[in-house]
Design a protein that fits this description.
Structural class: alpha/beta
Number of strands: 13
Number of helices: 11
CATH class: Alpha Beta
Bound molecules: nicotinamide-adenine-dinucleotide
CATH superfamily: NAD(P)-binding Rossmann-like Domain
Radius of gyration: 19 Å
Largest sheet: 7 strands, parallel
Helix content: 40-55%
Distance between the termini: 38 Å
Shape: globular
């Protein structure tokens, strides 16, 4: 059985991926247990323990270690992974704007350290998978009628914020390591991933919480901003199809649901679940890139990727999960 080391494996994406892959591969998890959202500490503490417990129940070894620590290299040498998935990073764009130095350290430096560990360790890696982001594109292009053109992998990337810039810098360094040191890489660009155990205060989590609290959903700029919301199981399907697949080596894939949905539509979905939730609009200067659907044709054609869960269904799954957990933290 091939060994996969999932860095950031106790985070939202890393945890779900570990669970999905553990019947086919020998999985090892490394995570530094960094909480980026102090005011969501209770949820983070609850879900991190839950994830750790579930991975322990599945027999997956979890090591608490930071990629930047000297001991990380020894861990990699001891495990001798065939494949490494890097799902570790500061995960939220707004935080990178607030604290650019920490963003550099936790998005760029840690990934660079990981590449150096791979380059200088006596291991024989067959694949390095980097979880990048749709934020590398910056503002999505528009057609003459002003309609968003789904972003595709071959188009130029022009990130407009620190998060997107560091993610793109990582992609460029990875490709340079391929040219100089034969790094067999695959880059995955997800978008607006949501689902059980997420606790980084993304819009899906915030709106569902408002539902449970019978509260008020606030829409920035009327909620006209579009996102390609992707249920976590679909993202994990896409990543797992790229893993150990010769077709995915030296390739970049958009992995998302493939549909742009307005944040106002998300609010309406939540309102249908919780009719007493209120929705109000505020005027807020747009600070995120204009996005929408990503073009997922490449993943469909090369990997046979087929997203299954639309936003209505995914939010129902997420709400049903939260029902059993939200009162416990
Ligand atoms: N969730 C999304 O919507 C989304 C969308 C696009 C891209 N991504 C990317 O996916 C990756 C995972 O995101 P997530 O939502 O699971 O975030 P998360 O915060 O839930 O998980 C990240 C994990 O990485 C760990 N980590 C961070 N720095 C580390 C280090 N130096 N050494 C070891 N562990 C470290 C953290 O402790 C955390 O458990 C990130 O790179 C993020 O940029 C996420």
């Amino acid at each position: 059985m091939k060994k996969i080391l999932i860095v950031g494996g106790l985070g939202f994406i890393g945890y779900h991926l570990s669970r999905k892959l553990c019947s086919q591969f020998e999985i090892y998890v490394v995570d530094a247990l960094i909480n980026y959202i102090p005011n969501n500490y209770k949820a983070w503490n609850y879900y991190t323990m839950l994830r750790q417990q579930e991975l322990n129940n599945l027999g997956i070894p979890c090591f608490i270690n930071n990629v930047n620590d000297l001991s990380f290299k020894q861990l990699v040498v001891n495990i001798k992974p065939d494949i490494i998935v890097n799902a570790a990073s500061m995960p939220v764009a707004l935080l990178a704007d607030i604290n650019p130095s920490q963003a550099k350290q936790d998005i760029f430096d840690s990934q660079f350290q990981l590449l150096e560990t791979i380059r200088t360790s006596p291991i024989n890696l067959s694949q390095y998978i980097y979880i990048s982001s749709s934020m590398v594109y910056g503002n999505f292009l528009r057609d003459d009628a002003g309609k968003i053109i789904p972003a595709s992998e071959e188009q130029a990337c022009h990130p407009i914020d620190g998060y997107g810039a560091f993610k793109l810098a990582n992609e460029i360094i990875i490709q340079q390591y391929h040219k100089k040191y034969n790094l067999p890489f695959t880059i995955i660009r997800p978008s607006a991933v949501y689902g059980p155990t997420d606790c980084n205060l993304r819009v899906t989590e915030i709106f569902l919480r408002k539902g449970f609290e019978h509260g008020t959903i606030e829409l920035d700029n009327g909620g006209l901003h579009e996102l390609d919301f992707t249920y976590i199981e679909d993202l994990c399907q896409g990543i797992s199809l790229a893993i150990n697949n010769p077709k995915s080596i030296h390739q970049i894939f958009n992995i998302s649901y493939g549909q742009g949905r307005k944040i106002a539509e998300l609010a309406q979905i939540v309102k249908q679940m919780f009719p007493d939730v209120k929705i109000i609009s505020n005027e807020c200067k747009p600070f995120r890139p204009n996005r929408g659907a990503m073009n997922i044709t490449k993943a469909k054609e090369m990997l046979n990727y087929r997203p299954q869960v639309d936003l209505e269904q995914g939010m129902m799954f997420y709400r049903d999960f939260l029902k059993h957990h939200i009162g416990l933290y």
